[in-house]
Amino acid sequence: MGTLDYIWAGVLAVFLGPELFSIFGVPVPVTIVMIFAGFLLGIAVGATPGLAGPIAMAIALPILISIFGYTPDALLPVMGFLIGVMKGATIGGAVPAILFNTPGTPDAYMTTLDGYPMTRKGQAKKALRVAHLSSVSGDTFSDMVLFICAPFLALLVEGYLDLPEKTALLILSLSFIAAVIGGSPAKGLISTGLGLLFAYVATGEDFYPRLSLDSKVLAQGFPLATAILGVLIVGAVFKELTDLWREKRESGALVGTVKDSGDQRLHMAEIRRLMPHIGRSAVIGTAIGALPGIGSTLAATIGYTVGKARYQRTKSPEEPEFGKGAPEGIAATEAANSSVSGANLIPVLSLGIPGNAAAVFLILAADSIGGFNPGPSVFRFTADAVNTELVIAFGLFTAMVVANVLNWTIGGVFMRSMGVMTRIPKQVLLPTVLLLTLTAIYVQETRMDAIWFTLGFGLLGYAMRVVAISPLPFVIAFILGGKLEESARQAFASTGGDPWFLFTHPIAAVFMALSVGVILLTARNNRARAARAST
Amino acid sequence: MSNESRSNLVLGIFFAVFALLLIFVWIPLDTDTGLIEKVRRQVTIGDALAPTVAGIFLLIGGLILIVFERKAADQPEIDPVNLGFMAVVFVLLAASFLVMRYGGPALVALVNLTRETPLEYRLLRDSAPWKFTGFFFGGTLMIGGLISLVEGRVTPRAVLIGVIAVLAMIAVYDLPFDDLLLPPNGDV
Predict the structure, then answer these.
(1) H/E stretch holding A263
(2) Of A231, A285, A337, B60, which is the most exposed, with the fewest CB atoms less than 10 Å away?
(3) Among the partner residues A187, A468, A488, nearest to B61 by beta-carbon distance
């Protein structure tokens, strides 16, 4: 099969896959329906403060696997649903930020700065239209970069990197993620170290399950879902519950609502004015998103800051400043944070390294179902035999295009109707999400130990948040831990037992030097910043 | 968050000590193979190496916190009141899951007091309404309890929300699927 044949096979796998039902004799494929369902759910959870895409993915995954089973046929419908959630949550997060000054997702915080003032001026619908246009434009741009870069990067990795280099690349990724997430390389390293440590409990090659303290409960190790959902979701719920309880004790006044007034449409002239901001932020978001571990919040902040500097030089005196209801502020933020999502999949599809929470859930789905291992080996364009993983990869790209089409066509309408989600009280939502998550774990693992593990990981996630340690490096290290050890074992064997294999191969040595360099550089910068702050 | 907080220093010392204990005590005592092993004249990586790398990550992280980030701005301050609330939440969760685990068998034992031929929960765990009892009572206690904790008072509304949410979860996870087991029915 040639390259075009593979792309076409991926498209057909989505559109000519198993039929769910037919409308007037036209078959409706199940993957399309699942993308659509995921997309709607994503908008709803994104629009609900306290919920986010990963929570919806966590709760839905066991249900989806029960419906579709553990066969390769399940991959596209399940992962299509998750992609739909990811896309929907990206635009949904702007709704409460604009309407109620409460960001639905953390990366929508900057959207509140101009979105909420627009609402207070009676331009809520217009602000939502600006957010939708910017978000969808940024997202589409980012996806196009993903489609081009991921296969190219994967081929490069497969072509030039041998086992020692791949091991060093994994170490570099972990160091990079540790250094950049959360702003403290030390805390990032601790988070990574803890993730690796838990991943190594009861695994290994020896008969005795290592680090299991001779306990039968630990002898099977920690299931992937308990660690991921515990630290990411349960930990977040614990933290939110505590914050909510605290807020309740020091409750503030409620702000009244303002009715929309004036023209709420978005005119061509306005779109032309917004486009440079959207374009600039889309490039910023995509570049940031392509690096594993750097989140959309940073992209939004940089997009907003750069947009603000430009706007101040070009704006006319009667136009509002950034932070006082400028549509350009919403455009700069939303285009930047939305363009991260597609580019974030570049490291996962080309290197097998998840860069954000959504990618973590895609890996969890692929791992649970089987038959697809995201990483460079996926992009092997074999001519003689069909590489089914490559067909799935192009199927995923097709699913992203479908989600984008939905986003462009009906996303705006759904987004604008989701204001009602912000009225669900958090104290009702959070306990329900907690039980849903724990139930989702149980139906997958069917043992109470899994629930206790998840609660334990939840406490760990809570403690990490309290002491400002980001949980994301933990999760990524937990996922990559097994891969790192396996790759090191193979590299060690292939180099004839050379203990210095990470330093005797030039590319591997460069990766190792970069791993140390990135940690030292960020630590030094942080110390300099602390010294400046204390003087 | 403040400049006065010494939480980074405390955290750094904790993880540095933990990493040293991990590398020099826990790993050697709790793994059967060393860092490098010789099996049938072939040198391979032992089971102790990977956890040691994890320990090195923790050690370096702890040392950087002590050396470079000791005086970092915006260090978190640990609030004992929040931790107290969290402890109460965890006790409530533990109680809920104990009710979930033993609620069904306990109800069966109660019913058995009035029966001549005793029932066995294990045999009933796939038939309604028995299979829902533990999940129903434990889940309601958890959701109703957490809402009441946050609101600072127990209300019928909180209990009702718990009941509705649990019934909705039963409808989502159990009714459409024959192969899914709600907690605790995989264990009993």
Answers:
(1) none
(2) B60
(3) A187
Are residues B97 and A452, on separate chains, in Cβ contact within 8 Å? yes
Ranges of beta strands (E only) in A236-352 are none
Other C-beta atoms lying within 10 Å of the C-beta of residue A156: 13
For chain B, domain boundaries: 7-67, 80-173
| Position A325 pLDDT exceeds 90 | no
Percent of chain B residues topping a pLDDT of 90: 56
The pLDDT of residue A251: 67
Classify each residue of B170-182 as buried b or exposed e, where b means 16 or more C-beta atoms within 10 Å of its C-beta. Answer: bebbbeeeeebbb
- DSSP three-state, residue A522: helix
Using a CB-CB cut-off of 8 Å, the residues of chain A touching B94 are: 455
Dihedral (C-alpha) A383, A387, A390, A396: value to the nearest 10 degrees?
A: 130
DSSP letter string, A377-428: GGG---SSS--HHHHHHHHHHHHHHHHHHHIIIIIHHHHHTGGGGGGS-HHH
Average of pLDDT values for A247-267? 65
AA identity, residue A408: W
ipTM of the complex: 0.94
Residue A50 exposed, middle or buried by CB count within 10 Å (0-12, 13-18, 19+): buried
Cβ–Cβ below 8 Å for A189 and B76: no
Q: B2 phi and psi, to 5 degrees?
A: -160, 170
Give me the total of CB pairs closer than 8 Å, taking one residue from chain A and one from chain B. Answer: 234
